[in-house]
Amino acid sequence: MHLHPGRLHHLYNRGNNGEQVFYTPAHYLYFLRKLRAHVVPKGRLLAYCLMPNHFHLLFEPAEADAEGGLARQGIGLALGAYAQGLNKERGRTGSLFQKRTKAKLLEADPHGAYPAICLHYLHQNPCRARLVTRLADWPYSSYRDYAGLRGGTLCALDYGRQLLDLPNAGPAFEAESARQMPPDLAADMLY
User: Fold this and answer.
1) DSSP category for residue 55
2) b/e map of 84-100 (b: 16 or more CB within 10 Å)?
3) Which of 25, 28, 100, 187 is the most buried (most CB within 10 A)?
4) How far is CA 98 from each of CA 1, 16, 37, rounded to the nearest angstrom?
5) So where are the chain's domains?
């Protein structure tokens, strides 16, 4: 995984062999605590979505992080600490996550929209997987924070709104999210 300091990335990984990595609400919360401890100090976390067998993050390594090494290390520590705790709790051994976390550099298209579309896409994952019928019903993403439905402090919300040209919390953000939903999925979703 190569990270560019001061530039936005879409980071994602899934369970080894597509296996589940989060089983209970406590597991999701434990992973978020590991992100807060090991990843957030290395840059800016703009958004996240945790799913039963994978996760997505929008992350910008700190400008001072030479070649993104500290951020890579923080991500490795967060995943390793989470895997170690889950393996111990569940009496399992071996790799929990796939070997390599993927990092896609998010370059703005000529209209600057692609990074914001990525944010909406990752928030839509629980609806796409039919785990919930409303984006606001999934507690393990930053959607509720951006929509003003929760006062989360994990993500750099103000910076994210400014960088991605997102509407402020509330109905404007919810409407923008709905506009980004694919038509076949949007017909089934209630906001």
Assistant:
1) E
2) eebeeeeeeeeebbbee
3) 28
4) 13, 4, 21
5) 9-186
